[in-house]
Amino acid sequence: MWPFRKRPQPTEHDIATAVNVRERVTDLEDAIEHLNRRFARLQQQVTRWSREYDEDTDEDEQTEFQELLEQKRRAQ
Prior knowledge:
By secondary structure, this protein is mainly α. The chain has two helices and no strands.
C-alpha cells in the first residue's frame, strides 16, 4: 500500500499561472542584469570624477576636514 496520494494533473489555469510566473522571473532577471550594468557604469563615472578631483586639488592645500580625516585614518 502506497502511503501518499497521487498528484492531481495540472489544470489549464495552473499551467497558465506557471507560464506567467516564468515570464515574470525572466523579466526580473533581465531587470537585474540591466541594473547591474547601470551600476557598473556609475561606478566607472564616479571613479573618473574622483581621479579628476584628486588631480585638481593640491596636496599642499589640505582643508581642516581632510587633515582630520587623515588623522582618524591613522588612529585606526
